[in-house]
Amino acid sequence: MRLEHDLGKKYYEGGATPSNLGGFVSKSMLFDFAKSPWGWKHSKAKESTPAMALGSLVHCLALTPKKWQEDYAISEFDSYRTKAAQEWRDDTVAKGIVPITNEQYEQASIIADSVMSDDDLQPLLVAGYDTEVAMYSESDEINVRGMVDIAPKSGDCLIDLKTISSITSEANLVNVVLNRGYHWQAAMYLDLWNAITGENRYRFILAFVESSAPYETAIVDISEFIELGRDGYTKAISLWKKCVSEDTWTKTISVNTKLKLPYWAIKQ
Amino acid sequence: METEQQQKTDAIVAQEPQNHIMLRVQAETQAFELIQRQAMMLSKSTLVPKDFAGNVANCAIALNVAKRTRLDPLMVCQNLAIIHGRPSWSATALIGMINASGKFSPLRFIMDDDDNPTSCFAVARDRESGEELKGEKITLDMAKREGWSTKNGSKWLTMPGQMLRYRAASFWSRAYASDMSLGMYTQDEVRDFAEPPRNVTPKNPFVMPEPEPEEPAQEPAKEPETIEAEIVLEKKAPVKKAGFALDEMIKELEKEVNP
């Protein structure tokens, strides 16, 4: 069991994939896997979407602002239509650096500022905080890892940043949490943190920030979801262990199921 | 012509069960919607207890119970409580239902001692057959063995007579009038039967369980401090004089053995 700081991209090496079943399992991997082990086993690596790329850039600027140039480079070109622009882009990508436009950088900077200076978030950070703390441990003989976005130096919580297209309402955030498995993340990260540090943190805070102007924020506590999340991720770890050891990958609906006619259809 | 007529008849006959099913589904749907509306109204009343106030689903269950027991829905709400997640009757309501049913004579309780009762059974007469119906004898010893009276704050210790009567009534109702209790326990039974609360907080799967404390290991026998002895020897006698030093020591030992 250990905590590690300043890993950067190294953290993402050695994760469990369909071709590397002995790697570290993470919350997002487990959440995808549990929906359909068969689907996960036969899936290809996820391609980064523009939303994901913006989210990563915001994370970088908010959490490790001094290091953003290690991972990103602002293009001097207006577009990649010219040969010089294309060459620069290809060279940059070959070095493992993500080329971004100045507009993208400015937008991500405003988003990062908006969330990090939020009046509801600030009180949690007054005692100081660590960012991007990697956690490694083992559960049920499976290697597990997680990356805490913000770990206040003292206090009872861990904090995770989330960019979102629209906050909309409290009910929408509840759906977002459950549909994207943020409650699994909350439970797993708190369990990992407490096991490694010997502390007893019990609150998990999500700092949502909208990805479009005026970049509204919402700081929410999802501690009430933790028990459900723990149930989810521990079952997923058990299922993972079973699937890997038996090399059987169950489908979403694994038996010859007879579908039941719903009440609303009869009423129609 | 005749064949065509026969085919039409066959088609109608085949369609009949399907129509019957559809009618039944429609009737069930209407009944469901009616009970939902009634439950909605009941849940908005300020007269219903907290288990039912604002809870349409609980009110729908109460209405269902009221329909099956032919009781007033408000009476059901007031005497049906959700304890440890189970709907349960109050013992007094159960006794009242038996007495009001008209099937039996009023329930009577036979105690072994009116002042200091230790046992009780309920008895009533079947009005139709005239048969005397005796219930199970409930004793304080039974309450102790079943763990009813050993719970914190148990009424068995402070009101044994009342508890004996209530328990005798609920046992009697399950034996002779289970259609009234609908298989539900009384509130005091649910409290008595409930298991002590368990700690259901899930464990952190990353924390290894504390190892059992082991017996303190015996201190290993001390080895002779040969190295130190050598050092002493070296201090007393340099290596080149080792032979002399040993001779001296042997002489000393001989003196101790043969003074």
Topology record:
The complex is a heterodimer of chains A (268) and B (259).
Chain A: E1 2-4, H1 27-35, H2 37-41, H3 50-63, H4 68-71, E2 72-74, H5 83-94, E3 98-100, H6 102-116, H7 122-125, E4 129-139, E5 142-152, E6 157-164, H8 170-180, H9 182-197, E7 203-210, E8 217-221, H10 226-246, H11 263-267
Chain B: H1 2-43, H2 56-69, H3 73-79, E1 80-83, E2 86-89, H4 91-100, E3 108-111, E4 119-125, E5 132-134, E6 138-139, H5 140-145, H6 155-158, H7 160-176, H8 178-181, H9 187-193, H10 226-236, H11 242-257
Antiparallel strand pairs in B: 1-2, 3-4, 4-5, 4-6
Number of helices of chain B: 11
- Provide the succession of SSEs of chain A: EHHHHEHEHHEEEHHEEHH
Number of strands of chain A: 8
Mean pLDDT of chain B: 76
Unreliable runs of chain B, pLDDT <50, ≥5 residues? 220-246
Strand content of chain A: 15-25%
From the alpha carbons, calculate the radius of gyration of chain B and give it in angstroms. Answer: 42 Å
Mean pLDDT of chain A: 90
Tell me about the biggest sheet of chain A? 3 strands, antiparallel
Structural class determined from secondary elements of chain A: alpha/beta
Give the class of chain B from helix and strand content and strand pairing: alpha+beta
Shape of chain A: globular
* SSE topology string of chain B: HHHEEHEEEEHHHHHHH
Helix content of chain B: 40-55%
Helix content of chain A: 40-55%
Strand content of chain B: 5-15%
Biggest contact: A-B, 18 and 8 residues
Distance between the termini of chain A: 57 Å
Condensed summary:
Chain A is α/β, with parallel strands linked by helices.
Keywords:
heterodimer; A: 268 residues; alpha/beta; three-stranded antiparallel sheet; three-stranded mixed sheet; B: 259 residues; alpha+beta; four-stranded antiparallel sheet; two-stranded antiparallel ribbon; extended
Structure description:
The complex is a heterodimer of chains A (268) and B (259). The mean pLDDT of chain A is 90. Chain A starts with a strand and ends with a helix. Chain A has helices spanning 27-35, 37-41, 50-63, 68-71, 83-94, 102-116, 122-125, 170-180, 182-197, 226-246, 263-267; strands at 2-4, 72-74, 98-100, 129-139, 142-152, 157-164, 203-210, 217-221. In chain A, 43% of the residues lie in helices and 19% in strands. The relative contact order of chain A is 0.16. In chain A, the strands form three sheets. Chain A has a three-stranded antiparallel sheet, covered by helices on one side. With 259 residues, chain B is of the alpha+beta class. Chain B contains eleven helices and six strands. In chain B, strands 3, 4, 5 and 6 form a four-stranded antiparallel sheet that branches. Chain B has a two-stranded antiparallel sheet with strand order 1-2. In chain B, α2 crosses α3 (73-79). Chain B is extended. The chains are: A alpha/beta (268), B alpha+beta (259).
